[in-house]
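Checklist before submission:
- one chain only
- standard amino acids only
- sequence pasted in full

Submission:
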Amino acid sequence: MSATVIVGGQWGDEGKAKVVDFLMHDHDVVIRFQGGANAGHTVVTDAGRFAFHQIPSGVLYASVTGILGNGMVIEPFALLDELKELTSRGIDVGGRMFISSAAQIVMPYHRILDNLMEADLKGQSIGSTGKGIGPAYGDKHMRSGLRMGVFLLDKEELYDIVKAKVEAGNRLLGLLGGPPLSSEKVASDFARIRDLVSRFVVDTQELVHTMKAQGKRILLEGAQGTLLDIDHGTYPFVTSSSCTIGGALTGTGLAARDIGRVIGIFKSYVTRVGNGPMPSELAGAEGVELRERGKEYGTTTGRPRRCGWFDLVAGRYSVRLNGYDEIALTKLDVISGLRGIKLCTAYELNGKRIVSFPQSLSDLAKCRPVFEEMPGWSAGEIRVDQFSEFPVRARRFIERLESELGVPVSFISTGPAREETVIRNAAYSFDRK
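Returned file contents:
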């Protein structure tokens, strides 16, 4: 059985969680393949609003198995808090959620290092969430990190290993002028939660391939977005993991031939949290209006998101990198009711018009958007069940995106709830109730 991959097509916050939740009706397993507690995924159901950070957002279906993949960096205490919140709301993941023993641990000193390094950058700061993600991935690639498999050791051995790691972390904190941590306290805290965490930790490489052999329908859930990818994004203003199609493979252990469908999630406009160039960004009242319409504040940090019109140049770049089979277009309701809607069709760089996305950060920062305006439509006109029932102007907007990106739009989200979704692909079935 081939797997489905969900990838953010822009700078993150595209509404991936709603699409994952929507598609879980036709899948048995959901695997989060990268990132950590710096991600915020929101799902709205009849039971209310659920905010996910590390746990895959597809686990709201009781029949679904959730896996935190080896490509993740996991903060175990925050994970237990997230599990407690789900349990308190009637979502029991016992026996159907697993954590890769190869996933890295975000240690307490990683958070301090993250904030110290961000402060040291001053006016050139990345805009980190301060969750310790970058330092944790740094330790992974320096081959000095701790994996979640350490929780499978007995408490005494776990205590000794964590204590030694914290003492090493304190030496680095000292070099940067940071406060030392009590290695005994941190080690005791890890030993205290050992039994709670260890019951979820398994060799997910073996588990995933067993499920594949059983014909289980697998969905891979990414965090952040293509333009924040450590290799292909607007470096250095990026996240510390691979959130494109390549990360789906390395973060789960699946092979390229196991991937049957790649769905890119695009917002009907663009947003970005943190610093870095964003050519179609709207300054002033227009940007504020779009932010308030879309309630564009980070799920994890609460920070206001920068907003802009849909960027076709960046969109085509995202399509080329990931090879999307389909697109899910979200938040169409947010731009409904506007008198006019703009598309960024090209950039102007040093007096020349370009249609490709520059790899050079300095070039991208100099790019100015070339906008084309399309007429808007009434807000109430999109509360429909079929694409054919959309107003002509809304259909033309969507068809223009398809034409420019070269990928069909199969899903259109017209609101945060599950049922506020229009399907254009007859292969999908969904019980709106």
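Reviewer check: The radius of gyration is 22 Å.
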